[in-house]
Amino acid sequence: MIHRRLQKLNFYFEFFEKDSIFPFYESVNNNTNGEISVNQSTEEIGRFKNRVSIVNFIPPYLDLKINKQNAPYRAFQVKPRTGFIMDLSQYSAADEYLKSHLGSKNRRSILSRLKKLETCFDITYKNYFGEIDESEYEFLFQEFELMIGSRFEQRGDEHVGFQRWDEYKESVYDLIVENRASLFVIYDKKKPIAINLNYHFDNILDIAIPSYDIDYSKFGLGQIVLVKQLEWCFQNDIKMVDMRWGDLPYKRLWCNKIEEYKCDVVYNKNNPTNLILAFTIAKYLNIKKSMGKSKIQQLRLKFLRKNRTKNETVDKVDVVAAIRIEDLAELPSTDQIRALDLSENEYQFLRNPVYNYQYTHSAHSSDIDVYSLDNEEMSYIIAGKRKLQKLIL
């Protein structure tokens, strides 16, 4: 019976994606600039009267005020998960932030890969914010879905966003037009190779779903897209970049604020049963968080001990086992080889090794030819200006 008294609510989805505030809140204060958004919701507040609402994912830079004067609602607040944020308010340019927070070594590495990317391909950057052609929007969302699917298949996982993919696809176009969402895209010619879905509120950018084409993984697209988005943020007076919850190494690298996301357990103060239930839930969430932190630390230590010397070796062995590379002195005669077009889907499996070749030799795609060998199955040749290589799969 208890579950009938409970409802789980996601503040993030409601506020950023639907531009709505749950009716038991009177206002939302953006503590980065002091702006207060008064709740304009006309939703009937009474439907929450007999239930305890667990409002998850309240970001640390927003303060929510319960409507205590006109409604009997109160809340226990807990902080069950860690959030990762780039606070740009003390910086004047993207490069200043990179120098200050990432350090010279990481900054040089990322900018070197950025230069490599622009050397090897015809790269352009586009942020769709305020307007987007409908046909381009449909094309980008199709490519976005494929990117995410490929990346998570490689990891042996499924992206949680796919559970709501139809909602995203139906809503984001209008949100872009209304300046409440954006798609930041890196193109190789006309092909999108990195796409970030973002939401906007005042001077805050929320990076909701990032993804990139894994064939270009050598170039570090995930880092490059953040550099370019930071540049856009400084040009458009964005003070806070929210990379959401989920403890990942790249977030720790980029974010200068690691703060706790809030969770409000909202209840009707005139209902003693719900008050006790809300108090119990808040206590449980705090205990769960404490136990979770301890367990995570133990798992991290165990992982580091087991993998300190193994990770890089295993990765290299896997690559070598998949593809053998041989240098060639000259190209075989034309009657032994056949030119291939990597844009055709049947040769997609060759893109990653060819792009890796381009990265290593700083070779532009227009200077690369790829051939199959007629008398050798699963053998291919990459012909650049300076080097010939044979791939044996």
TrEMBL record:
Which superkingdom, per the lineage? Answer: Bacteria
- Supply the alphabetized keyword list: Transferase
> Does the UniProt entry include the keyword Chloroplast?
no
Tell me one GO molecular function of this protein.
transferase activity
Positions of the BioF2-like acetyltransferase domain: 104-252
- Tell me the protein's name: Acetyltransferase (GNAT) domain-containing protein
Q: Which organism is it from?
A: Arenibacter palladensis
